[in-house]
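Example for tutorial group B:
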């Protein structure tokens, strides 16, 4: 399996989930023994998760998904600063959920352009902050889940500080795979990135102006109308702990495998490997083949037992042209995306990579032959 935007649960997370079905099933707001036990377990999950992210427990909240956490983060920043400005600045390669929030705040907003590697340059952000209507926040990804490029947050964060704006960082593709970024005011993530259940987390730094519209809820520091299901929170915390313990070795191994894929793909005629070749996620790569479409490549590889993806990783599951590749000026059709699972859930991934590298040239050549474009 080489498409792990969602993967099987880490074995330890699965064991934790199963055990928690008996120990943490109750409503953590109840005063009976089972409720108090569930509250204790939820607090432990929050403390464990916060420690692995370098945050305080009272800064972290659980959410139904990573996308939901990001929407909550943007809504809290926008509402808290609604008298300052309405715009939300984001880049052209950010996730659709952030682009939607930016458009909702200002229907005339144009996403900030990026360079050919998918990076938002500090001078671009500085220029946008100095022009146009007042903004309420900046929302940017830590790393792109489609092409792997890491954004220069250390250079972008000072621009936000100079403008007096909070920075929300979307780390749904990177948390647990890279060091947790520390240059942020609000941080969003998803446990599925590290073979946990699809549960979102949101970190709001102490002192950040944050206030959600609507009624004031009690659960999750007022950020959700109900508490998370405790077994899922425990499984998520366990997955993140396991990722922390193995991250250095996992990162090195995944990076070597992705380098292998990048080399094999670049060796095929008229195939473009996109994204930063060095400053990138260790487990993600996308390449595009001229004259053929991505769906055909995916289908041909699937018949050989090689599972990859195509289309945009930052929109929906539909195989539609990638707005990320378009923003980078790259080929938007014929693209194939590989997202390596953790070795703990896919012990045969090295063999899968070998198979992909071996079969890819033949698959592309066969498809081009059928279309009569082999000699173009």
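The residue assignment follows.
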């Amino acid at each position: 399996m080489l498409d792990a935007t969602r993967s099987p649960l880490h074995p330890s997370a699965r064991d934790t989930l199963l055990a928690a079905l008996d120990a943490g099933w109750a409503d953590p707001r109840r005063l009976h023994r089972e409720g108090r036990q569930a509250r204790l377990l939820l607090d432990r999950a929050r403390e464990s998760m916060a420690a692995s992210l370098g945050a305080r427990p009272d800064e972290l909240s659980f959410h139904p998904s990573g996308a939901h956490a990001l929407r909550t983060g943007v809504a809290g920043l926008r509402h808290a600063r609604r008298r300052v400005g309405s715009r939300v600045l984001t880049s052209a390669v950010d996730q659709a959920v952030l682009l939607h929030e930016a458009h909702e705040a200002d229907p005339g907003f144009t996403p900030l352009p990026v360079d050919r590697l998918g990076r938002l340059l500090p001078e671009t952000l500085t220029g946008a902050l100095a022009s146009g209507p007042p903004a309420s926040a900046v929302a940017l990804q830590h790393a792109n889940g489609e092409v792997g490029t890491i954004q220069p947050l250390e250079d972008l964060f000072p621009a936000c500080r100079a403008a007096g704006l909070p920075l929300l960082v979307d780390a749904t593709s990177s948390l647990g795979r890279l060091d947790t970024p520390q240059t942020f005011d609000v941080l969003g993530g998803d446990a599925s990135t590290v073979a946990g259940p699809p549960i979102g987390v949101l970190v709001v730094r102490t002192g950040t102006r944050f206030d959600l519209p609507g009624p004031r809820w009690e659960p999750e520091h007022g950020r959700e109308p109900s508490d998370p299901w405790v077994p899922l929170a425990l499984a998520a915390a366990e997955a993140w702990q396991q990722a922390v313990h193995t991250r250095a070795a996992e990162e090195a191994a995944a990076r070597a495998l992705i380098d292998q894929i990048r080399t094999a793909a670049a060796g095929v005629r008229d195939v473009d490997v996109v994204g930063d070749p060095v400053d990138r996620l260790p487990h993600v790569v996308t390449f595009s083949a001229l004259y053929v479409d991505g769906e055909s490549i995916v289908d041909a590889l699937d018949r050989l037992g090689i599972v990859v993806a195509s289309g945009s990783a930052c929109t929906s599951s539909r195989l539609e042209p990638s707005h990320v590749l378009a923003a980078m000026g790259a080929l938007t059709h014929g693209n194939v995306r590989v997202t390596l699972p953790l070795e703990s859930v896919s012990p045969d991934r090295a063999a899968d990579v070998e198979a992909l590298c071996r079969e890819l040239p033949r698959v592309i050549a066969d498809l081009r032959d059928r279309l009569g474009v082999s000699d173009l």
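The longest strand covers residues 135-141. Compare this with the pattern of hydrophobic and polar residues in the output above.
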